Amino acid sequence: MAEGRKRGIYLLLLHLRGPRSIEVGRLGRREFRAGWYLYVGSGMGGVLGRIRRHLRKGKRLRWHIDYLTEVAEVKEVFVKEAEKGEECAVARSLEGELQVIEGFGSSDCRCRGHLFYHPYGEHLRQVSIRALGGGESLKPEEVV
């Protein structure tokens, strides 16, 4: 995907090595199990710029996902050009298949959450590919 100011949605596949108790802004303290997480987000002002921000360590913590990316490792990024509203459609499509982390990443919408847990990373990877129905799969170092 050529940068510019492309609008899009993205899914971050994250791995958390051990259980952690994390203070997540206004959500408060949350307990996270060791395992794999999938975050659904969007960047309507430049999706690749948003992803690059999430990948940086030591950033100002602004969004819920910023708190998790400080302690978990982003293993893969899935990105697709999209318009506003598709982020929530993808998040809702995952609710029946994955464990939703209630309230995480959904403070500005009516979704149950935009973060999902599963013990197996490969399962989340396959779910990501299917949920986006296209787009690109990138390793974090490929997001330039």
Can you describe what's shown?
- This protein is of the alpha+beta class and 144 residues long.
- The protein has one domain (8-142).
- The chain contains 4 helices and 8 strands; from the N terminus they run E-E-E-E-H-H-E-H-E-E-H-E.
- It has a 6-stranded antiparallel sheet. It has a two-stranded antiparallel sheet with strand order 2-3.
Strand and helix map with partners:
Layout: E1 8-16, E2 20-24, E3 28-32, E4 35-43, H1 47-55, H2 64-69, E5 73-81, H3 86-94, E6 99-100, E7 115-118, H4 121-132, E8 136-138
Antiparallel strand pairs: 1-4, 1-5, 2-3, 4-7, 5-8, 6-7
Sum up the structure in keywords.
globular; single chain; two-stranded antiparallel sheet; alpha+beta; 144 residues; six-stranded antiparallel β-sheet
